[in-house]
């Protein structure tokens, strides 16, 4: 099982019922939840570890992931409120305003998380849960606890407006990425992590030097690149798509990549270090193909396997 660890929230999606007015529709979201849902719909064995509220939105989140074949055994329930993210769309590009104080997803401690079963072979971390205390420290501790024996993928999915202490956030990310096997960043993430005037290849080299075996850089309509410590570099073009919005695109790419590696029995610590170029190319292409289906739909609505 791939266990996705991190944010599950409600995206308040804007609609215009009448000219000059805006209303919001609550839809399940969060980078980690989206990745888990996409994995479940692709047929990969997956679970979600996150804090969930007993409130109406938490019930909506639980029903959504269960419908998408995501295991719910690792949900951590509480009476705290659900995180809300109000979405603004400009030419299909999403920006967010978060309401996350004292939320069920944020107020976690490593003591809340029991030992993981042997069935969990890989863990995925990412999203705003890596930026907000105390959950961020909880997930960092969980990664450190499990990284020696399980594959770890990290996608920081950086939201600069959400970061209160940039220096501490960078230090935490550096520690987590150093212990990860796979790190995926967007080109925007890469430039935030390394703002100095260097080429992307130089920045990727710095990221690989931290410790991951594989670094993936996504570039929107310019495709994606995979870089390995053994010198392998694979570029794949973006899959053709008619873009409605980009909500959940990167999360779905993550799921496509992980699902294909799992399907090909390559999701182990030793195999990630020695991925053949052909396998990496196949996995990156699958991520791009799945993401293209998502951007053609409104909101984070990953495709089911039969839709590919």
Automatic annotation (TrEMBL):
<keyword id="KW-0547">Nucleotide-binding</keyword>
<feature type="domain" description="Carbohydrate kinase PfkB">
    <location>
        <begin position="23"/>
        <end position="303"/>
    </location>
</feature>
<keyword id="KW-0808">Transferase</keyword>
<keyword id="KW-0067">ATP-binding</keyword>
<dbReference type="Pfam" id="PF00294">
    <property type="entry name" value="PfkB"/>
</dbReference>
<comment type="similarity">
    <text>Belongs to the carbohydrate kinase PfkB family.</text>
</comment>
<protein>
    <submittedName>
        <fullName>Carbohydrate kinase</fullName>
    </submittedName>
</protein>
<dbReference type="InterPro" id="IPR050306">
    <property type="entry name" value="PfkB_Carbo_kinase"/>
</dbReference>
<dbReference type="InterPro" id="IPR029056">
    <property type="entry name" value="Ribokinase-like"/>
</dbReference>
<keyword id="KW-0418">Kinase</keyword>
<dbReference type="GO" id="GO:0016301">
    <property type="term" value="F:kinase activity"/>
</dbReference>
<dbReference type="InterPro" id="IPR011611">
    <property type="entry name" value="PfkB_dom"/>
</dbReference>
<dbReference type="InterPro" id="IPR002173">
    <property type="entry name" value="Carboh/pur_kinase_PfkB_CS"/>
</dbReference>
């Amino acid at each position: 099982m791939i266990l996705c660890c991190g944010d599950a929230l409600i995206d308040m999606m804007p609609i215009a019922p009448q000219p000059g007015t805006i209303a919001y529709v609550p839809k399940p979201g969060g980078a980690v939840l989206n990745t888990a849902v996409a994995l479940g719909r692709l047929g990969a064995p997956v679970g979600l570890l996150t804090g969930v509220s007993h409130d109406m939105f938490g019930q909506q989140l639980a029903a959504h992931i269960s419908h998408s074949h995501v295991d719910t055994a690792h949900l951590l329930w509480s009476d705290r409120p659900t995180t809300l993210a109000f979405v603004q769309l400009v030419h299909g590009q999403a920006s967010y305003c978060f309401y996350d104080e004292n939320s069920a997803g944020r107020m976690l401690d490593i003591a809340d998380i029991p030992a993981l079963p042997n069935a969990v072979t890989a863990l995925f971390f990412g999203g705003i849960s890596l930026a907000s205390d105390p959950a961020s420290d909880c997930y960092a501790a969980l990664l450190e606890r499990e990284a020696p024996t399980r594959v770890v993928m990290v996608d920081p999915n950086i939201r600069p407006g959400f970061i209160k202490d940039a220096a501490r956030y960078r230090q935490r990310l550096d520690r987590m990425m150093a212990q990860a096997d796979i790190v995926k960043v967007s080109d925007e993430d890469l430039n935030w992590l390394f703002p100095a005037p260097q080429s992307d290849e130089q920045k990727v080299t710095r990221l690989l030097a931290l410790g991951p075996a594989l670094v993936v850089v996504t570039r929107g309509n310019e495709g994606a690149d995979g870089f390995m410590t053994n010198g392998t570099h694979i570029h794949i073009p973006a899959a053709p798509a008619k873009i409605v919005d980009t909500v959940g695109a990167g999360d779905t790419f993550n799921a496509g990549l992980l699902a294909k590696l799992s399907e090909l029995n390559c999701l182990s610590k030793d195999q990630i270090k020695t991925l053949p170029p052909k396998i990496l190319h196949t996995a990156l292409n699958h991520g791009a193909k799945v993401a293209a289906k998502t951007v053609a739909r409104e909101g984070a609505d990953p495709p089911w396997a039969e839709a590919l």
